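hiii so um. not sure if this is the right channel but i have a protein structure encoded as tokens and i wanna go backwards to a sequence. like what aa goes where. can anyone help
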């Protein structure tokens, strides 16, 4: 415990030093560009950017700190996953080398290949935050101001996303007509090769969720008597829907996941289009987020009393949830030499594909809820997820998700000492991959601080009222 406290103090000290350095840098820039004090507009603009920059490092008092930890970890998981997953493209025509590299990675790092589950954490957090906001608004006004809600979500998501789309469209030279699908947030209905940005399906799924949520709360959820049972039922239905989709196209579960990862055949695109990027196959984590928000808001005292009455049971449940997270993220489906793939069973694969993401999300949901009730073993969890070191990453996580890929490429080029790469690499080591991952996260973070300060925050500030707060995503 003493070591943990010492490490926390060291991390906080390092973060303060980074912040002071950045503040000093801003002051130097302020001096160098010679902002004219007699020009109010220039001064106001610069002060706003400076304030936005500071907000990346200073957490508002009203904000729930535990959520920042989950958000920061989820974006880092996704970036690490994309760094490693890029190997499937960079090792073209060297399949045996890639298989050997994967086989040599220690078992404890199996979670790397399932880092895309960080997206499921994003969805869970969105369900929690958005439903919490809508619950509060309904309790206050007995309605939900849908226009205001959509306007806020639009300002939060669209500006940075639009800039990325335009830049990508110019670089890729794809048919401009397809940008409309992205702007209308229906691009996940397009064939994979028609999407301008294939990885922004997550933004589309979130926006589709936002579109439904006010109506869901007003006309469905609030009219249901047994709300907890209703949400649990919906969560179970989400796994059933995934299973039905797989059963409708048996080849999707009859194909080994390692073969999908190795890009064997057109089945890869079909898997992405049918199961990977749709709201109706990914809404389970959103429901868990709504359930967690409902329990925290309307059953806070009951849960607190229950934990205090049975602390051993609560601690055991917490340990079980952590074990579920670890185990569900450690299935070695990526390794062609693993027992899972050597003794491949289609029925087992069907069950795994149908429930794995929801099982993982269930473990995360309980861990999230437990960290919001810091009693017993959940206290160190709450302290960890509330760490000031994680807050800056959480604050700019949206920009980090959008702009990660150029920096993954740049980090790979730097580590491999090959600026061109040409889509191929001769060899790689696990140490180099970790270096690439850390460098990608660092470079993406630095760039995202800039985009947040200049693009994201000014639009967020448009719907601020009296308090200087930043709306959580």
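sure thing!! here u go:
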């Amino acid at each position: 415990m003493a070591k943990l406290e010492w490490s926390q103090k060291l991390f906080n000290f390092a973060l303060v030093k980074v912040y002071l350095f950045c503040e000093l840098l801003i002051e130097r820039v302020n001096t160098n560009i010679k902002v004219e004090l007699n020009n109010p507009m220039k001064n106001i603009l610069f002060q706003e950017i400076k304030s936005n920059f500071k907000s990346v490092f200073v957490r508002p008092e009203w904000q729930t700190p535990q959520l920042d930890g989950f958000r920061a970890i989820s974006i880092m998981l996704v970036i690490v996953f994309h760094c490693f997953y890029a190997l499937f493209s960079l090792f073209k025509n060297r399949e045996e080398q890639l298989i050997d590299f994967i086989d040599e990675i220690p078992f404890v790092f199996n979670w790397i290949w399932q880092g895309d589950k960080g997206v499921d954490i994003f969805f869970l957090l969105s369900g929690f935050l958005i439903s919490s906001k809508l619950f509060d608004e309904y309790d206050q006004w007995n309605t939900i101001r849908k226009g205001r809600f959509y306007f806020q979500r639009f300002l939060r998501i669209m500006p940075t996303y639009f800039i990325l789309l335009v830049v990508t469209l110019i670089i890729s030279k794809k048919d401009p007509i397809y940008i409309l699908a992205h702007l209308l947030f229906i691009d996940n209905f397009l064939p994979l090769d028609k999407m301008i940005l294939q990885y922004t399906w997550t933004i589309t799924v979130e926006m589709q969720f936002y579109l439904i949520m006010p109506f869901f709360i007003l006309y469905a959820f609030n009219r249901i008597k047994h709300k907890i049972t209703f949400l649990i039922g919906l969560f179970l239905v989400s796994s059933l829907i995934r299973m039905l989709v797989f059963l409708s196209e048996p080849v999707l579960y009859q194909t080994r996941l390692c073969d999908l990862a190795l890009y064997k055949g057109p089945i890869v695109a079909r898997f992405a289009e049918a199961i990977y990027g749709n709201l109706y196959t990914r809404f389970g984590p959103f429901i868990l987020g709504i359930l967690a928000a409902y329990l925290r808001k309307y059953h806070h005292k009951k849960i607190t009393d229950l934990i205090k009455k049975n602390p051993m049971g609560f601690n055991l449940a917490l340990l079980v949830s952590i074990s579920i997270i670890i185990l569900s993220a450690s299935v070695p489906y990526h390794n062609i030499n693993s027992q899972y793939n050597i003794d491949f069973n289609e029925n087992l694969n069907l069950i795994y594909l149908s429930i794995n993401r929801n099982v993982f999300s269930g473990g995360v949901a309980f861990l999230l809820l437990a960290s919001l009730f810091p009693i017993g073993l959940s206290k160190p969890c709450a302290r960890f997820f509330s760490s000031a070191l994680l807050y800056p990453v959480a604050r700019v996580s949206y920009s980090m998700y959008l702009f990660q890929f150029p920096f993954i490429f740049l980090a790979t080029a730097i580590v491999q000492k090959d600026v061109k790469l040409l889509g191929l690499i001769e060899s790689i080591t696990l140490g180099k991959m970790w270096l690439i991952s850390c460098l990608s996260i660092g470079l993406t973070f630095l760039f995202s601080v800039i985009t947040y300060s200049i693009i994201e925050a000014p639009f967020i500030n448009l719907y601020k009222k009296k308090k200087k707060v930043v709306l959580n995503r």
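oh and The chain has 23 helices and no strands.
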